[in-house]
Amino acid sequence: MTMVSISSRYLPDHEAEALAEAFGPNGMRRRSLLGGGLAMGAGLVGGLTATPLSAWAADAPEAEITVDQARTAPIPIVIPSFGPGVGEQITQVVTNDLSNTGLFKVLPGSAMSGTPDFAPYKAMGAHAAVTGGFSGSGSIRVEFRLWDVLAGQQIQGTAYTTNAANWRRIAHIIGDVIYERMLGEKGYFDTRIGFISRSGSVHQPRMRLAVMDQDGANCRILSSTQTKLPAFSPVRDQIAFLSYASSVPRIYVFDLASGHQRIIGDFNGVPLGPHYSPDGSSLVVPVAKGSGSDLYSVNIASGAKRQITSSGGAINVSPSFSPDGSQIVFNSDKGGSPALYIMSASGGSARRLSYGSGHYGDSVWSPRGDLIGFTRISGGQFSLGVMNPDGTGERIMTQGYTVESPSFCPNGRVLAFSRSGPNGGAAIHTIDITGFHEQAIPTPEGGSGPTWSPLNV
């Protein structure tokens, strides 16, 4: 195996960890390196049917409240209980989904069916209200209606019939429907986050591939061996990751539905974190060799590889595709210090994007195409920020001892990332792209390297 000489070079922590795993625990941390929507009849586990309770309200007013307006004045919405037991659990999940965005102000209400009395809701200042109910045990039926309180009319009405095990997903789907109908954009509640579950000591942690719902529920450990740098496919139930199951680091693809995994080729060097193309057909993989690293495009079906950068000794890492697949943003120290660059997805010349002070680390392109998320260290302080794709408008959202591995949710409104302190204790957080509503996601063990799934299908 070719050794990589980077003792005085900069790499994001998770990239450096991957190299350290391959070459031994030689302290390759950033600080030391720096010297100081659901279709009708769509299937779920056990099957699900979604049936309109009345005709879709095509003549109902379109969303008149934008996300930016809701940030300033959260939408007051009444959500009563869906009933006892599982019904109450559904109520709580929907309430949490909406409240955690900071875009909704959830108001309690009395359970009811049929057309609500809008006068009390108007007096409460509510703009919208939900009515619904839950019935059944093995097979359950969840009815849900969304009402425009000011106009006094139904916006949405759907009944979901499914296996009782799917109640949490039904709650997330209801939350997504409310989000989309009120704000005019798709929600992101019925999604999952892949990540690395960390346990053991700070210097020799056990790191296993895991997946959970976006709110931390239903966490599952997927691997027993050391894994790092996961990436969720944008189109299917599939996670690519770097595995140390053998003496040679390799890229694997794990199918969540079947539990099967397979190796994606071998590399003449040390592969680092993979990133999917928007259509899910290929990966771009940094491969370290000698004193630098280059980016390779790898076809998932055939394993065919094509080099798309020529480093000349520079370190090129942290690639991310634009939503249309035409460009790649990545980190490179070709200019002397780590900065962000953009190039054609087919390779060729790269244009420097970032010119701020300090060293840039991770880069990730929003699925909306309007922003690029990044990490940066300056003056010993780590920062998470966003900028426009032309490099303008750079702004910092949060800072800390270590913040890394940003990943956008499917609608581009929230970033997941990893935060840790001087004594370790890595945890996964989320933050709105404006820099508000930072929250920790509960995980059974420590968590790092989050990667957000597409909306579940």
Largest sheet: number of strands, sense, barrel closure: 6 strands, mixed
In the CATH hierarchy, what is the architecture of the largest domain at level 2?
6 Propeller
Secondary structural class:
mainly beta
In the CATH hierarchy, what is the superfamily of the largest domain? TolB, C-terminal domain
The DSSP helix count reads 6
Our estimate of the beta-strand percent is: 35-45%
- Main sheet: strand order: 1-6-5-4-2-3
State the distance separating the first and last CA atoms. 41 Å
CATH class category name of the largest domain: Mainly Beta
In the CATH hierarchy, the third-tier topology of the largest domain is known as Neuraminidase
- Total E-strand runs: 31
Radius of gyration equals: 23 Å
Shape category: globular
Protein name: Tol-Pal system protein TolB
Subcellular location: Periplasm
GO cellular component, one term: periplasmic space
Domain TolB N-terminal: 64-155
